[in-house]
Amino acid sequence: xxxxxxxxxxxxxxxxxxxxxxxxxxxxxxxxxxxxxxxxxxxxxxxxxxxxxxxxxxxxxxxxxxxxxxxxxxxxxxxxxxxxxxxxxxxxxxxxxxxxxxxxxxxxxxxxxxxxxxxxxxxxxxxxxxxxxxxxxxxxxxxx
Length: 144
Description:
Layout: H1 2-8, E1 19-23, E2 29-34, H2 64-70, E3 82-87, H3 91-100, E4 104-109, H4 116-127, E5 131-134
Parallel strand pairs: 3-4, 4-5
Antiparallel strand pairs: 1-2, 1-3
Protein backbone atom coordinates (compact mmCIF):
# COMPACT_ATOMS: atom_id res chain seq x y z
CA UNK A 1 0.00 0.00 0.00
CA UNK A 2 2.97 2.26 0.60
CA UNK A 3 3.85 2.19 -3.10
CA UNK A 4 0.24 3.02 -4.02
CA UNK A 5 0.33 5.96 -1.61
CA UNK A 6 3.63 7.22 -3.01
CA UNK A 7 2.29 6.86 -6.53
CA UNK A 8 -0.77 8.95 -5.61
CA UNK A 9 1.51 11.90 -4.90
CA UNK A 10 2.21 12.17 -8.64
CA UNK A 11 -1.42 13.07 -9.33
CA UNK A 12 -2.13 16.70 -10.17
CA UNK A 13 -5.75 16.41 -9.04
CA UNK A 14 -6.23 19.15 -6.43
CA UNK A 15 -9.01 17.23 -4.64
CA UNK A 16 -8.46 13.47 -4.81
CA UNK A 17 -5.06 11.88 -5.34
CA UNK A 18 -5.33 8.14 -5.98
CA UNK A 19 -2.54 5.62 -6.44
CA UNK A 20 -2.46 1.95 -7.39
CA UNK A 21 0.12 -0.82 -7.29
CA UNK A 22 -0.25 -4.28 -8.84
CA UNK A 23 1.84 -7.14 -7.42
CA UNK A 24 2.26 -10.79 -8.37
CA UNK A 25 2.16 -13.86 -6.10
CA UNK A 26 5.75 -13.17 -5.01
CA UNK A 27 4.81 -9.59 -4.01
CA UNK A 28 6.92 -8.23 -6.84
CA UNK A 29 5.64 -4.98 -8.29
CA UNK A 30 4.18 -5.56 -11.75
CA UNK A 31 2.88 -2.04 -12.36
CA UNK A 32 1.88 1.23 -10.73
CA UNK A 33 -0.44 4.07 -11.65
CA UNK A 34 -2.09 7.24 -10.41
CA UNK A 35 -5.07 9.31 -11.50
CA UNK A 36 -4.20 11.77 -14.23
CA UNK A 37 -4.96 13.08 -17.68
CA UNK A 38 -4.15 10.88 -20.69
CA UNK A 39 -0.46 10.93 -21.60
CA UNK A 40 0.62 13.49 -24.15
CA UNK A 41 -2.31 15.86 -23.73
CA UNK A 42 -1.72 19.49 -22.79
CA UNK A 43 -3.21 19.42 -19.30
CA UNK A 44 -3.50 23.20 -19.31
CA UNK A 45 -6.23 22.79 -21.94
CA UNK A 46 -8.32 20.51 -19.67
CA UNK A 47 -10.12 21.11 -16.41
CA UNK A 48 -9.37 19.67 -12.98
CA UNK A 49 -12.71 21.08 -11.78
CA UNK A 50 -15.68 19.00 -10.70
CA UNK A 51 -17.73 21.30 -12.95
CA UNK A 52 -20.43 20.68 -15.50
CA UNK A 53 -20.22 19.68 -19.15
CA UNK A 54 -16.80 20.01 -20.78
CA UNK A 55 -15.50 21.73 -17.64
CA UNK A 56 -15.60 18.48 -15.65
CA UNK A 57 -12.44 16.52 -14.90
CA UNK A 58 -14.49 13.31 -14.84
CA UNK A 59 -14.66 13.35 -18.64
CA UNK A 60 -10.88 13.32 -19.00
CA UNK A 61 -9.10 11.71 -16.05
CA UNK A 62 -7.75 8.16 -16.23
CA UNK A 63 -8.08 6.47 -12.85
CA UNK A 64 -5.11 5.00 -11.00
CA UNK A 65 -6.23 1.38 -11.41
CA UNK A 66 -6.80 1.84 -15.14
CA UNK A 67 -3.37 3.46 -15.54
CA UNK A 68 -1.71 0.67 -13.56
CA UNK A 69 -3.33 -1.89 -15.86
CA UNK A 70 -2.28 0.07 -18.97
CA UNK A 71 1.26 0.60 -17.62
CA UNK A 72 1.94 -3.13 -17.41
CA UNK A 73 5.14 -3.83 -19.33
CA UNK A 74 5.26 -5.87 -22.52
CA UNK A 75 1.64 -6.97 -22.23
CA UNK A 76 2.43 -9.06 -19.15
CA UNK A 77 -0.51 -11.02 -17.81
CA UNK A 78 -2.13 -9.74 -14.63
CA UNK A 79 -3.95 -13.02 -14.04
CA UNK A 80 -3.71 -13.92 -10.37
CA UNK A 81 -2.20 -10.58 -9.33
CA UNK A 82 -3.32 -8.37 -6.45
CA UNK A 83 -4.23 -4.69 -6.77
CA UNK A 84 -3.44 -2.28 -3.96
CA UNK A 85 -5.35 0.99 -4.41
CA UNK A 86 -5.88 3.99 -2.16
CA UNK A 87 -9.57 4.37 -3.12
CA UNK A 88 -12.10 1.60 -3.84
CA UNK A 89 -12.41 1.14 -7.63
CA UNK A 90 -15.27 2.69 -9.56
CA UNK A 91 -17.51 0.54 -11.76
CA UNK A 92 -15.45 1.29 -14.91
CA UNK A 93 -12.17 0.29 -13.25
CA UNK A 94 -13.86 -2.80 -11.79
CA UNK A 95 -14.58 -3.97 -15.33
CA UNK A 96 -10.90 -3.63 -16.26
CA UNK A 97 -9.84 -5.44 -13.07
CA UNK A 98 -12.18 -8.32 -13.88
CA UNK A 99 -11.12 -8.52 -17.53
CA UNK A 100 -7.41 -8.73 -16.63
CA UNK A 101 -7.82 -11.58 -14.14
CA UNK A 102 -6.70 -9.74 -11.01
CA UNK A 103 -7.69 -11.96 -8.08
CA UNK A 104 -7.77 -9.53 -5.15
CA UNK A 105 -8.35 -5.83 -4.51
CA UNK A 106 -6.90 -4.32 -1.35
CA UNK A 107 -8.18 -0.77 -0.82
CA UNK A 108 -7.37 1.91 1.73
CA UNK A 109 -10.54 4.03 1.61
CA UNK A 110 -14.10 3.54 0.40
CA UNK A 111 -15.40 7.06 0.93
CA UNK A 112 -17.84 6.77 -1.98
CA UNK A 113 -19.35 3.45 -0.83
CA UNK A 114 -22.89 4.83 -0.88
CA UNK A 115 -22.76 5.83 -4.56
CA UNK A 116 -24.41 3.74 -7.24
CA UNK A 117 -21.14 3.41 -9.16
CA UNK A 118 -19.22 1.93 -6.24
CA UNK A 119 -22.13 -0.34 -5.32
CA UNK A 120 -22.15 -1.64 -8.91
CA UNK A 121 -18.38 -2.05 -8.74
CA UNK A 122 -18.60 -4.12 -5.57
CA UNK A 123 -21.37 -6.26 -7.04
CA UNK A 124 -19.37 -7.01 -10.22
CA UNK A 125 -16.15 -7.74 -8.33
CA UNK A 126 -17.96 -10.11 -5.96
CA UNK A 127 -19.75 -11.85 -8.85
CA UNK A 128 -16.36 -12.34 -10.52
CA UNK A 129 -15.03 -13.99 -7.36
CA UNK A 130 -12.47 -11.27 -6.70
CA UNK A 131 -11.47 -11.02 -3.06
CA UNK A 132 -12.04 -7.56 -1.55
CA UNK A 133 -10.38 -6.37 1.59
CA UNK A 134 -9.81 -3.08 3.28
CA UNK A 135 -6.21 -2.38 4.23
CA UNK A 136 -6.08 -2.24 8.01
CA UNK A 137 -2.41 -1.86 8.83
CA UNK A 138 -1.03 1.45 9.98
CA UNK A 139 -0.06 3.70 7.11
CA UNK A 140 2.72 6.20 7.76
CA UNK A 141 1.94 9.85 7.08
CA UNK A 142 3.41 11.17 3.84
CA UNK A 143 3.96 14.92 3.59
CA UNK A 144 2.90 16.52 0.35
